[in-house]
Amino acid sequence: MNKAIKPAVVGTIVKNAADSAEFGKAVGSDIFEIRIDLLLKNEPSFEKYLKSSRADSALYEKIAGWLKDAKKQGLPLIGTIRSKKEGGFFERSEAELFDLIQKIIPDVDYIDIERKSLKKNRMKAVEIAKKSKTEVIISSHFFNETPSAEKMKNVLKRSFEYGADIAKIAVMPQTEEDVLKLYKAGLKIKGRTCLIAMGEIGKQTRIAAPLYGSVLSYGYINESAAPGQLRTNEIKEGFKILGLID
User: Most Cβ neighbours (<10 Å): which of 20, 76, 102, 161?
Assistant: First the structure.
């Protein structure tokens, strides 16, 4: 069965939120991902908040400002705070990470939650998101491998059981066969997924994954936020070639 759907291109904002959002819309983004951990890292006066337990009004005001700047372009927002263990830069405790997540949920259209988070943190965030009518993306990352198609299918299925509106999985393929495993897993799942194979071998998934049910493709605006990312306009052109969008 052909699961091809009309996908959306996600432009990831990692610095200079206002300028990146304006340029990101111009180069084809349909949705913005606000990578708060990277925005903190790229703004020297706020980098300290990645590691210290310090939390004050200045931090929340800064994050609110980034969200406000991005919203001016009229596109939906994904809020993401990626922990260091999941490939990001936020080094503080998971409790502190989720404290920030809970604060931004009402101000974004989607919230990204890591599947491996503690159950109590994940459930509370999902509960708040549902009340706020914010859609939940539950993410799973395999930075050093590509699991079997059966395991990936089960990971995606579990993400929906945890409350995901979109189940996202990113793997690191070693061979072209690994990419095929990802596609096979996508075909076996009902529901909205985001399928990503990272690195050079996986670049094709940034464009071709919607043929296997993936609804989002993450691209960069100014600089890559993940291995194998394409620029948003390149993804859009690829979608047009495959007839996925007009």
Answer: 20
